[in-house]
Amino acid sequence: MGRVKLCLLFFLMIWVSVLNAQTTKVRGTVTDAETGEPLPMVTLLFVGTTIGVTTDFDGNYYLETRENVSELMAAYVSYEKQTKPVNKGAFNTIDFKLVPIVTGLDEVKVTPGENPAHAILRNISKNKKRNNPAEKEAYSYSTYTKMELDVANLKPQFKNKKLQKNFGFIFQYMDTSAITGKAYLPVMISEASADYYYRRSPRLSREIVKASRISGIQEDYSLAQFTGHLHVNVNLYDNYINIFEVNFVSPLCDHGLLYYKYFLVDSLQKEGRKIYKIRFHPKGKSTPVFDGEVNIDSTTWALESAQMRMIKGLNVNWIKDLAIETTNELINDSTWFLKQDKILADFTVQMRDSSKLISFMGHRQIDYSNVTVNEAIPSEILKLDSEVTINKNVLQNDENYWQNARPYQLSEKERNIYNMVDSIKNVPLYQNIYDMIQTVFLGYYNTKYVGFGPYYKLYSFNKLEGNRFQLGAKTTSDFSKRIRLSGYGAYSTKDQKFKGGGTVEYMFNNQPTSKLTVSGKHDVFQLGASENAFTTGNILSSIFSRGNNEKLTMINEFDFRYEKEWWQGFSNSFALEYRQMYPTKYVDFIRPDGKELNQIHTTQFRLGTRLSKNEIVVRQDFDKVSMGSDFPIVGIDLVAGLKGVLNSDYEYYRAEISVQHDMHIAPIGYSDFMITGGKIFGKVPYPLLKLHEGNATYFYDPYAFSCMNFYEFASDLWAAVFWEHHFRGFFLSKIPLMKRLKWREVVTVKALWGRLSDKNNGSLSDTRAILLFPEGMSSVSKPYIEAGVGVENILRLIRVDAIWRLTHRGDRSGQKVDNFAINFSIHLNF
Asked: Where on the phi/psi map is residue 156: left (φ > 0), alpha (ψ -120 to 50), or beta?
């Protein structure tokens, strides 16, 4: 759903920010009145307040406030001060041309000495543990979070009269961003009110979402690829700040002098405390960095506030601008804690400046209140068994509640914007366009209650089936938010067989998940394919097939599965699975005595366990999608074959464990790991062994072996490692041409070791196995290793890998193998 809505936003020129109709916004440039050159580090201050900022090295600045202000002053050493009026509660463009002061000076001697900003930075590092909120033993606070989706560079004159008629009303709600200077239109607004409790040891994290609501276009897991990253907690005390999967160097990094130049530009009195204002500027662009300023308390060496902005020219996709503001407050005589933080991101399909190009902005603001530090956590909170609890007793659309929850009151114009945002989706033309794009991007054409598709499976082809035609359908959320029905039918011309399947899902509870699924199908299936491989009938698997590696098996299956999420980060699945597998032209079942086995019957019970920590999960009515975690994610799969149950022929036991982890290694990129291993106990035919994951297409599969055929290796005891490291242009960005192309390096290593007991090894000449192995299949007691290098971010989407097979090279008995492979893939990365 999210990709459809995202593309619909592009079509309608609609998309991210926070409502600031009552905010006074100012942006502009400060230059020398005589030379016209920009003046860096000029102090801009709202008269009568301590709200101010300094200009960057191009002389630019921006300020926003809800305070009652009327004048803005610019001050710079050796220049005359200037004050200009401000239009309160509106957007202002105010440029200053400062006049130099000509003064006769006596002789001045300049002697070398330490940059005073460096001494302050050392004191910040020494006091990080004391000042960093993450280092506190315990704390709690209340939050009010607001997010908004906006479209920028939207022109009030639609050339299309039909669009003008349907959507012309929206333009009276446009505003202008002080940061980018772009006019924007809000199209989605979300608000949330929550209480949060944290204890360091023993670790405890509990968030109680008291209320949340969303207006306009519903945010889901595809949009969450963009907006989900705006939920990140920005902690400048960390050496690196991970936003949009990019590790930016923090200006308070312990080795920040490698990346930034620092300048002590001013000191001011704020609430009786002396605050140092330090401007920082990046030394280069090979590593993601910011430009901005930090304000440091002179007594505690704590961060009082910061304003920073991503510099231009970085190897970052889709984000043309990124600005962060954070403010801390003193909650007792010595403890600083979060008061407010903001993130604004400007998304665009091009990085060049263009007032004609539609772009999209995202703005998230969190206000903190009721902060307590190192106090006991209430017993009722300690009893909660979920890290996130949603209070369903509060009316989400109760306006009286939100008026009390907000740290400020909305103006009438701001309140009307909520109504405008909701009214967009009620325009008939919107729904028509939505239906059209939904078909293209989600694969299903949805009526109110039923969707038909997916279109990419309507036609496909392979060696076994010849031409395959398929049509499917599934119910929508309007049909039921508890029950989802889906099914499909297919016919293939070469084997002249009908296939099909169906699924019934019943959702007892969405969070935590409690879901029952009953499914069955009669279809062909590729044994030994990874979970990432194209599914049966996908036209892409036909078009990009390597042509000699398809080994499909006919299968009947019936599954009864229940998923239970006990609390966030710990879930089980319980399944009873029935299978009938039949030999085909390309996959035979031959006994050691030469007779063919006409089918394999199995009934098995499966217990799955999934463990994760601090995982970000986006939930829909029936599905949930992981947005990742900073910690390893562990999966445990236990299977028991039930001989005699539903005519099952075999008793066996299988245990498998996998560990996945994305590790950020700033500033040289990040690594993706998956380590897996398992063992099968008992005597089984080879389709029930571990058939190691081959790849039959030119598409890159991170969890399959690119140079391995299907049915090449089998094991009943195994271990495998899949590793990728993404350098994000760390080396190529230092080469001028590559820097402009913004290509990025990636290396891969995949290794496998396995063993087969004699009772399951159908490749032995005097085998005691149930079935002979297909020609060319064997054990992998000698490790199988392949490695590759690749370039990603080609045209910001394409990745190409060159992969070499390092062991088991050369044609093997009965199988032609590839010692080298070229794979490509499509990735939407920042």
From this structure: alpha
Whether 683 contacts 770, CB under 8 Å: yes
Tell me the whole-structure pTM to 2 decimals. Answer: 0.78
pLDDT for residue 434: 62
CA distance 810 to 111: 71
Q: Rounded to an integer, what distance in angstroms lies between the CA atom of residue 768 and that of residue 764?
A: 8
Contact indicator for 301, 336 with CB cutoff of 8 Å: no
Distance CA 251, CA 239 (A): 8
pLDDT tens-digit series, residues 60-75: 999 988 888 889 999 9
pLDDT in tens, 529-580: 888 777 778 888 888 888 766 788 999 999 999 999 988 789 999 999 999 9
pLDDT at 14: 32
Contact 175, 182 (CB under 8 A): no
Residue whose entry in the numeric block shows the structure tokens 């097939």: 545
Q: CA-CA distance, 817 to 92, in Å (whole number)? A: 67
CA–CA gap between residue 36 and residue 15 (Å, rounded): 37
What topology does CATH give the domain 24-104?
Immunoglobulin-like (2.60.40)
- If you ran DSSP here, which 8-state letter would residue 743 be given? -
How far apart, in whole angstroms, are the C-alpha atoms of residue 523 and residue 242?
A: 44
Sign of the Cα torsion 759, 763, 766, 772 reads positive
Separation between Cα atoms, residue 598 and residue 780, nearest integer Å: 28
> Alpha-carbon distance 804 to 823, whole Å?
11
Distance of CA 365 to the CA centre of its chain: 19
Give the three-class secondary structure for 140: strand
Strands (E), 348-421: 359-373, 388-390
Q: Are 457 and 539 in contact (CB under 8 A)?
A: yes
DSSP string, 787-816: EEEEEEEETTTEEEEEEEE-SS-S-BTTB-
Token pair for residue 686? 């080879």
- Quote the CA–CA distance of 392 and 435 in Å, as a whole number: 32
Tell me the three-class secondary structure of 408-460, residue by residue: CCCCHHHHHHHHHHHHHCCCHHHHHHHHHHHHHHHCCEECCCEEEECHHHCEE
Instruction: Give pLDDT, residue 237.
Output: 94
Give the C-alpha separation, 73 to 268, whole Å: 15
User: Measured over all CA atoms, what is the biggest interatomic distance in the chain, rounded to whole angstroms?
Assistant: 109
Q: How far apart are CA 15 and CA 421, in angstroms?
A: 11
Distances (CA, A) of 652 to 267, 655, 676, 681, 778: 74, 10, 20, 6, 21
Write down the domain spans for the chain: 24-104, 122-417, 686-830
Residue 126 CB-half CA count within 13 A: 8
Query: What are phi and psi for residue 547, nearest 5 degrees?
Result: 90, -25
* Burial of residue 174, with CB atoms counted within 10 A of its CB: 0-12 exposed, 13-18 middle, 19 or more buried: middle
* Positions of the chain with pLDDT lower than 50, given as ranges: 1-21, 218-230, 354
Contacts of 446 (CB under 8 A, 6+ apart): 435, 438, 439, 476
CB distance 121 to 341 below 8 Å: no
Secondary structure, 3-state, 32-54: ECCCCCECCCCEEEECCCCCEEE
- CA 664, distance to chain mean position in Å, is 14
Which helix (H) or strand (E) segment is 754 a member of? strand 744-755
